[in-house]
Amino acid sequence: MKAMETIQDLIEEGKLRTVWWALCIFAVTYFLSHTSKSMLMNIPVAILLVSGLRILLTEVEFRRKVRSGRPHTYLTLLERKQMSLNDSRLSTPPPPPKWKRKIGSPVVEAAANEFIEKLLKEFVVDLWYSDITPDKDFPEQIRGIILDAIGEISGRVKAINLVDLLTRDIIDLVGDHLDVFRRIQATIGTDVMRTLSSEERDERLKYHLMASKELHPALISPESEYKVLQHLMSGVIASVLKPREAQCPVVRSIARELVTCLVVQPLMNFASPV
Question: What's the short name of a Pfam family annotated to this entry (predicted)?
């Protein structure tokens, strides 16, 4: 019984659709008759138009474009381009400082950083700067300048040809000093040199070298040693500092005196204590 009702419903639905199709085709054919007098030629065209219209209405989805209530401004464009907090680019670690890239050794970097930190704390912050202000900007800037200088020196040292340095330059330098020592020793006398103490021998050598103008200026007096080291460090600071910092007399003078008095002179005194 249910099957019969279903077939009957299908027949009724088919009749209804046939009537609607016939009406639509007739209406379209009637409108097309204004352009063509042949009714039979208009029927296939009407069938195609009605079929195409049905496909458009049933298969194609039409949606109205929703326009924004406010016009696009520069701020709205910035909001679209703004990165979210979860963007992976924001979590990328910053590149290491330039001086670390030039050194390229974590052990040396840590040692240099610790050494400069203690140096500034002992001779700058605790000695006089903390009595003026608790601000930490100046020590940090000085630390950055010194570390940049160490990085620049490290980069230049890496560029040195060690083979030529060890097999040619140092050997020539030591050979020249030995030649000068033997010549002065011959002038003083080998037998006399054996009878002198180490202090007296140094004084005799210093006297003869000064007379022949072959004595290094740094060995004349402590003041001369300071002047020579200051002159050498001026050249080093001018080479390793950034151009903007090297052109500032205050920065150049402070960096030169810090390196000369707190680094090089203590190392020289440690190497040759008097």
Answer: PXA
Give the position of tokens 């950083």: 113
Residue 45 neighbours by CB distance under 10 Å: 15
In a domain, 246, yes or no: no
Whether this prediction's pTM lies above 0.85 is answered by: no
Residue 186 lies in a domain: yes
What pLDDT, on a 0 to 100 scale, did the predictor assign at position 228?
Answer: 92
9 inside domain: yes
Average pLDDT over residues 129-133: 89
Q: Considering the domain boundaries, does residue 72 fall inside one? A: no
Cα end-to-end span (Å), the chain: 126
Report DSSP state, residue 136: -
State the residue for tokens 């810090």: 258
The rounded distance, in Å, linking the Cα atoms of 238 and 114 is 24
Q: Which residues contact 148 (CB under 8 A, 6 or more apart)?
A: 98, 99, 240, 241, 242
Q: What's the pLDDT score for residue 1?
A: 46
